Amino acid sequence: MSGSERVAPKRLHVITWGCQMNVYDSRRMADVLAPLGYVPVAAADNADMVILNTCHIRDRAAEKVFSELGRLRLLKAARAASGGRMILAVAGCVAQAEGAEILARAPFVDIVLGPQTYHRLPEMVARAAAKGDVAGGDIGAGPGAIIETDFPPEQKFDFLPEASAPQGLSAFLTIQEGCDKFCSFCVVPYTRGAEMSRPAASVLAEARKLVGQGAREIVLLGQNVNAWHGAGVSTGAGAWQGAAPDRGSWGLGRLLRAMAEIPGVVRLRYTTSHPGDMDDDLIAAHSDLPMLMPFLHLPVQSGSDRVLTAMHRRHSASDYLRLVERLRAARPDLALSSDFIVGHPGETDADFADTLALVRAVGFAQAFSFKYSPRPGTPAAGAPGQVPEAEKDRRLHELQAVLREQQARFNAGCVGLTLPVLFTGAGRHPGQIVGRSPFLQPVHVTGSASLIGSEVPVHIAAAHTNSLAGTTLVGTAPAGTSPAATPIEERACA
Ligand code: 5AD
Ligand code: SF4
Question: Where in 345-407 does DSSP place strands (E)?
């Protein structure tokens, strides 16, 4: 676009709930709207457009959205009263699952769009703008609101703009979306749709662009990221750049190896994985690629085979334990994280005891745990044997106590070690900088801001509940040298 065609800037405020994939989607929505002149701003007041990017995975998600919409209704009215216009859009999984209800309860919403249609935002915004607010400066969009929640035949990734705002030192990159696993409790297969993988060439091109913009760590994202199976590209340095002919289908291990060859990439991570999709090549990548960080989020959900069957997880507790053994054989310092659900329909005290036993057998560096929450339309929501809320509370409390203790032990085990830390920003206190250990723990040190962007050895001196503190072994990053080249201990914290 030439300078003379430049459009007047408009203020865009995006509120994001949920997982990293929503964070990625929010950024990409901003990218899609940038050519229309939309510039992200930090507050909704006086915004020309507000997008709520929503999450539907557990309960009360929709209620949070409606409560936020109540607040925005007033801001939208204030903007209309001063002669302006605020376009209000609800995106993401709540929009996908409850689009009609949103418009019924909040008729002042202009646009409802699902996660697969946001490449069409410019057209939706144009339609909303043409329609205008209803007569009299009211704040309603009402019956004319735009709703785009079908799964379109085209892939949004083929239509997203090349240009994107820089993401910083650690960048998310969605490579896979949707899920075909249909776990009994989960809405994802319904809200995000069938599993789809982006082709390797497109992923590698985006990774190169991110690195060009300053990213040093790339986090590959997918609802079921290790099910990624993309059209491959010809091998050899840079061969993928020219959209070289398809070289068959690659798995995630192969993609990670290609990512590791991109100059400037210092760290790689991927999340979230299903135990059933950890193939041999991916496990081997943990041994072969030092830049693949020794931290894996591998949800098991339960330690009871009865519950795992009811959940339709397609793996047993012993399958999971065997897999952990193989992963640790490939990468002895691998730290593990998981998701757990307590109180799935039919879960007994004995089943819950099996979960605690699995937790003790694995030893997690961190984990997320949730009370089962019935999601409308999923098989478990109508299953017999719903567990009373008070019992779910009790089990969650007990599980979290064990997980907290494991996390504290893991963090305490890091004290005295020297770990490479990729510094990403200023800390909360003056003179402090913060980064991440290989095991994803935030690490605070007093040090020069010139270290931000470098991976630097840090002597770990103290462990807190969720973070570490230490001292850097280099004052500033020496010009032309990589601090990461300093020998660094490689061993697990606990
Ligand atoms: N109830 C509770 N937790 C759930 N999760 C997914 N669906 C539900 C539900 N209905 C949890 C799972 C999943 C994580 C992202 O959220 O543990 O791995
Ligand atoms: Fe949901 Fe994950 Fe199961 Fe897919 S594998 S249905 S995303 S819990």
Answer: 366-371
DSSP 171: E
The DSSP letter of residue 292 is: B
181 C-alpha to center of ligand 2: Å?
A: 6
CA distance 233 to 196: 17
Point out the ligand 2 atom lying closest to the alpha carbon of residue 189. Answer: 6
φ, ψ (nearest 5 deg) of residue 111: -140, 135
Whichever domain contains 50, its CATH number is 3.40.50.12160
pLDDT in tens, 275-323: 999 999 999 999 999 999 999 999 999 999 999 999 999 999 999 999 9
Whether 114 shows a pLDDT value over 90: the answer reads: yes
d(CA 273, CA 232): 20
Ligand nearest to the Cα of 376, by number: 1
Q: Is 326 left (phi over 0), alpha (psi -120 to 50) or beta?
A: alpha
- Containing 268, the helix (H) or strand (E) segment is strand 267-271
From the CA of 129, how far away is ligand 1's center (Å)? 38
- List, chain by chain if needed, residues with CB within 6 Å of any ligand 1 atom: 57-58, 185-186, 299, 301, 339, 341, 370, 372-373, 375
Residue 124 inside a domain? The answer is yes
Q: Which ligand has the nearest atom to the CA of 344?
A: 1
CATH number of the domain to which 351 belongs:
3.30.750.200
Closest CA to 296 of 229, 245, 366, 208: 366
- Residue at 284 is within a domain: yes
pTM: 0.90
How much is the pLDDT for 483? 33
**Residue span of the structural domain in which 123 resides:** 3-148
